[in-house]
# Entry
Amino acid sequence: MKPPIRIAVTGATGQIGYSLLYRIAAGDMFGHDQPIILQLHDITEAQSFFKGIIMELDDCAFPLLNQVITTDNLEVAFGDADFALLVGARPRGEKMERKDLLAANGPIFRQQGKTLNSVAKRNIKVLVVGNPANTNAFITLKNAPDLDPRNFSAMLRLDHNRALSQVAQKINVPVSKINKMIVWGNHSNTQFPDLSHATVENQKILELMTQDSDWINDTFIPTVQNRGSAIIAARQGKSSAASAANAIINHMRDWVFGTRENDWVSMGVLSTGCYDIPTGVIYSFPVTCKNGQYQIVEDLKITPSDHQRMQQSYQELLTEQEAIKSLFN
# Structure
């Protein structure tokens, strides 16, 4: 039996946590031969909600689950952690602008970065889920200077999965048949879901949809961009939970074990300067993963109109960084 790995999860008593923890414990994220220790964090006021979660984890009798630690202390939650899933963040309230959300959540991720830097394993992999995810990931890594910045990422996999699902339904094929989907940019409504390189069984999807350019521009792109808001409306105020948890599992499993052959996934990672996206932002690119490392897919042909969409999302990230630049010191 392998030695157990330590997985830290923040915001663990929330809706996403409730959908996520049991799947991690069942082996869906790191395999059905990998024992785990869950190190669960939430704010002091939420500690009482851990009781029911622990009772259900016990009642599942997961063979892989060696230990569960619950705490409101980040040093305990991140101590010797191999992986950190930063799910917890203040949700966007009514009449709250994006800059207000940044102001509320920025200090949270600043402290989490500092604590990770102090107590986590040096090769820890960190996935930021709490919104605004790209900029929160940047805040976290900037406050963890002793850790490898390539081990920090923001979650765009939910948007990637939404794009896959929309196209699969449109052309009536299983999601598993679609390869090389891309979602560029920020996890916001400026993101750009891009079908230019996507294939189904080695045929370009755009070649199958020559009569559907209006659907791509008028339905597909805005549906993916605004899907989060649509789900909140459909769930009467509650945001994506099960689909977000599933995307976390997809993201981490591919990052650790590798992407499918001849396929890409979308990850928010530190820009290297490719595609005219300057270094210094966490931006979603198409990547391949192997041996626990990701590699940005470079040198793809980008049309002028697509380049403009990509730049729009980059400019939004610059604006966000300007709003929270004091948190990098």
Notes: The CA atoms of residues 12 and 122 lie 23 Å apart.
